[in-house]
Write a structure and sequence with these properties.
Elements lengths: L6 E2 L9 E3 L2 H6 L18 H4 L5 H7 L5 E3 L2 H7 L7 E3 L1 H7 L4 E6 L10 H13 L4 E6 L3 H13 L2 E7 H6 L1 H9 L3 E5 L5 H9 L7 H13 L4 E4 L5 H7 L1 H13 L5 E5 L4 H15 L7 E7 L4 H4 L1 E6 L8 E6 L21 H8 L4 E5 L1 H15 L5 H20 L4 E6 L7 H8 L10 H8 L10
Parallel strand pairs: 5-15, 6-7, 6-9, 7-8, 10-11, 10-15, 11-14
Antiparallel strand pairs: 1-4, 2-3, 4-5, 12-13
Helix pairs in contact: 3-12, 4-6, 5-17, 6-7, 6-12, 7-9, 10-11, 12-14, 13-14, 17-18
């Protein structure tokens, strides 16, 4: 296989100049999106309800019915620091698995923050700066989103304050240092800076935190300061929109390889990186152009929202400050076990991605910590790239697909998104190599208690 081409690179002038909006295709395919609701009135919210948190330009993208949304020139200029990102064929992994499958991965770990997150962070920073905002308040799980937002705010001259989930704050101190290097303020969440954080600390002094709690703190911070807006790293439509640069590039690169994916794999916490690579391909499936293409979302067994959650209206944050959205959820009160894949420890999923799963256009599977680190270690040894714990879920999904192809004796083209590197996650790898990595069990009793507190809003039949 020495003569097999293993890397497919685009030129700088091939960076996508418009983001792809899948919502028109979702509607045409008969999936009716449900509106977000006000946490106070339980009625559909309008642009004015979101104005205390987001600039009108992003609110417009959130409700856009246009298939394409132009990328501003200033954002493209920022993208040039790491985009286009490479697409590679994992031939050494294929050989190790003795599979007839062809495995391709889109590598987003080459960005300055080490993940896909800057694709939307720089866009959000730009639109907030354009709107006259001085400061951004945000949350972060593993630290990848906080790192990206700190970088983006530095690029566009904004201040940045990050509420970092305490489990990750303790596990990944160098992520905190990275954010502080770019001028961001970072506190462990739950913190004593907000009413939301103080209430959680009083009720649960030993809380390891959750993305739901950290979101509550950041939303409260933004809502109580006129010069401050909130920025979210996943879940919402405009965030997923910005990430489609990944899939749009991947389509060009798969054409260079002369192949079409049979299955597209990615890890899911809120849904941003997986939507980013999958939505441009998903459009073909929804239009009937590639009806047999499959989509596999992978998630942690400790926080299995898509595989064990309920499709319902739920609050996006623990303190019920933000909008109520329709999604697969484990309940806004659910606090996942402190797995190393902190970016996937969110109680819910993107509404659009949830719709695709609910209607059978996308499958989902959950993995334990030891399963995904075993996969990540094999990928590192064969391909020389050390994935982040979050990305290891996608690696595991791709490996399972390749093994299934081997056992079936069939060729299969697998594309997955390697959404970030694991250079800040060596403690996790050390724990795995030492055999001390716990496989946290999902506690259905905790989920049942959390789901008992869902808002009194029913999904229309």
């Amino acid at each position: 296989m020495s003569d097999v081409r293993t890397r497919f690179d685009l030129q700088p002038d091939q960076i996508p100049t418009a983001w792809f909006n899948i919502m028109p295709d979702i509607v045409k395919a008969g999936m009716e999106p449900l509106p977000p609701l006000s946490p106070q009135t339980k009625e559909p919210i309008g642009p004015d309800d979101l104005a205390p948190l987001f600039p009108m330009s992003l609110i417009g993208q959130e409700v856009s019915t246009d298939e394409w949304v132009d990328v501003p020139g200033e954002v493209i200029d920022a993208y040039r620091a790491w985009r286009p990102s490479p697409l590679s064929r994992a031939t050494r992994l294929e050989q190790s698995l003795q599979t007839p499958a062809h495995i391709y991965y889109k590598y987003e770990g080459g960005s300055p923050a080490g993940s896909h997150k800057p694709n939307t962070a720089v866009a959000q920073a730009y639109f907030n700066k354009e709107a006259g905002i001085r400061r951004i308040a945000t949350e972060t799980g593993a630290g990848q989103w906080g790192s990206a937002m700190a970088l983006a705010c530095q690029m566009f001259g904004l201040e940045c304050d990050v509420y970092m989930v305490k489990a990750s704050y303790d596990q990944k101190p160098y992520r905190r240092v990275f954010m502080e290097t770019f001028g961001a303020g970072v506190v462990a969440s739950p913190s004593d800076k907000t009413n939301s954080g103080r209430a959680i600390r009083e009720a649960h002094p030993d809380s390891t935190g959750s993305l739901g709690i950290a979101i509550s703190e950041a939303v409260e911070d933004a809502a109580t300061h006129e010069d401050t807006n909130y920025a979210l790293g996943s879940v919402l439509g405009h965030v997923l929109l910005h990430q489609t640069v990944i899939g749009l590039e991947a389509q060009q690169q798969m054409a260079m390889a002369g192949e079409q994916p049979d299955v597209v794999v990615g890890c899911v916490g809120g849904g941003s990186n997986y939507a980013g690579i999958s939505y441009p391909f998903m459009a073909g499936k929804l239009r009937g152009e590639t009806p047999d293409m499959r989509f596999l979302a992978t998630e942690p067994a400790a926080c299995p929202t898509l595989t064990k959650g309920r499709f319902a209206y739920d609050y996006g944050d623990t303190s019920r400050l933000g909008p109520i959205v329709p999604m697969y959820t484990l309940g806004h009160d659910f606090v996942p076990a402190p797995v190393h894949a902190g970016g996937l420890r969110y109680h819910g999923d993107s509404p659009s991605l949830s719709l695709l799963v609910k209607h059978g256009h996308m499958d989902a599977v959950a993995y334990t910590q030891n399963e995904i680190f075993e996969a990540g270690l094999l990928f590192a040894k064969t391909q020389g790239v050390l994935p982040a714990p979050e990305a290891n879920h996608a690696v595991k999904g791709a490996i399972d697909e390749a093994i299934a192809a081997r056992e079936a004796g069939e060729e299969r083209v697998i594309l997955f998104n390697l959404c970030g590197h694991g250079h800040f996650d060596m403690q996790a790898y050390d724990d795995y190599l030492a055999g001390s990595l716990p496989d946290f069990e999902f506690d259905a009793a905790d989920e049942e208690a959390a789901l008992a507190n869902l808002p009194e809003v029913s999904i229309p039949v």
